[in-house]
């Protein structure tokens, strides 16, 4: 006669003559490994997709902006008829890096005499010839670019044949304060062309 099995379920099965249901088949190790690998791959793809999309879209956003208004000074800081240069400071960012604020260019502002249609006019200080910085003539009678002697009136009109076009005017807006804030839409333009073509 067989000795009864030590396991309780097996003993009961042995005693009653019934058979216990077989345990469910375990998932093969190879299948488990494939499943884990696929899940990890999906996770990595999702993490990489977010900055990737930002990188692709960032240039589109930059191109569409067409320049931004910068607060440059207060109207009371400008003397009528006297040009003043101001640096334009911007913070830059791309898909990965946020750069600290730094000068990206400069503008010339001239407050107009009372009664004029515009209170302030602004010029890009980059020369339309080849992009050097425009300054004021030593005798204070107009603008001069020291690189190849492009010369302009204080209205930005050329006074010789070096520059291909007048100085590039920029949009100006004044706030509604008692001492208005002077804001300039800072843009850069292609050099060495007769046409004023904004850079993206
Ligand atoms: S860059 Fe100004 S004159 Fe040439």
Task: Give me some keywords for this one.
single chain; about 200 residues; alpha+beta; Rieske Iron-sulfur Protein; 2 domains; 4-stranded antiparallel β-sheet; 3-stranded antiparallel β-sheet; elongated; binds FE2/S2 (inorganic) cluster
Structure summarized in a few sentences:
The chain has 2 helices and 10 strands. It is α+β, with helices and mostly antiparallel strands and 200 residues long.
Give an account of the 3D structure.
The chain is an alpha+beta fold. The chain folds into 2 domains: 21-65; 67-186, Rieske [2Fe-2S] iron-sulphur domain (Rieske Iron-sulfur Protein), CATH 2.102.10.10. The protein is built from 2 helices and 10 strands; from the N terminus they run H-H-E-E-E-E-E-E-E-E-E-E. The strands form 3 sheets. Strands 2-3-4-8 form a 4-stranded antiparallel beta sheet, with no helix packed on it. A hairpin with a 6-residue loop joins strand 9 and strand 10. The N and C termini lie far apart (96 Å). Residues 127, 129-132, 145, 147-148, 150, 162 line the site of FE2/S2 (inorganic) cluster. FE2/S2 (inorganic) cluster (FES) binds at residues 127, 129-132, 145, 147-148, 150, 162.
């Amino acid at each position: 006669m067989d000795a009864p099995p030590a396991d309780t379920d097996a003993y009961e099965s042995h005693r009653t003559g019934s058979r216990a249901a077989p345990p469910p088949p375990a998932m093969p190790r190879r299948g488990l490994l494939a499943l884990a690998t696929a899940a990890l791959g999906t996770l990595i793809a999702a993490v990489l997709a977010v900055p990737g999309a930002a990188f692709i879209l960032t240039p589109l956003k930059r191109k569409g902006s067409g320049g931004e208004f910068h607060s440059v000074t207060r109207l009371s800081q400008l003397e009528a008829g006297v040009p003043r240069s101001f640096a334009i400071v911007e913070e830059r960012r791309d898909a990965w890096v946020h750069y600290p604020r730094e000068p990206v260019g400069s503008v010339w502002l001239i407050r107009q005499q009372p009664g004029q249609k515009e209170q302030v006019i602004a010029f890009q200080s980059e020369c339309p010839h080849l992009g050097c910085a425009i300054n004021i003539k030593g005798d204070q009678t107009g603008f001069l670019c020291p690189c190849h002697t492009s010369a302009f009136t204080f209205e930005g009109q050329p006074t010789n044949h070096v520059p291909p076009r007048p100085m590039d005017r920029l949009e100006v807006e004044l706030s509604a304060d008692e001492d208005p804030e002077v804001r300039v839409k800072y843009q850069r333009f292609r050099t060495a062309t007769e046409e004023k073509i904004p850079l993206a």
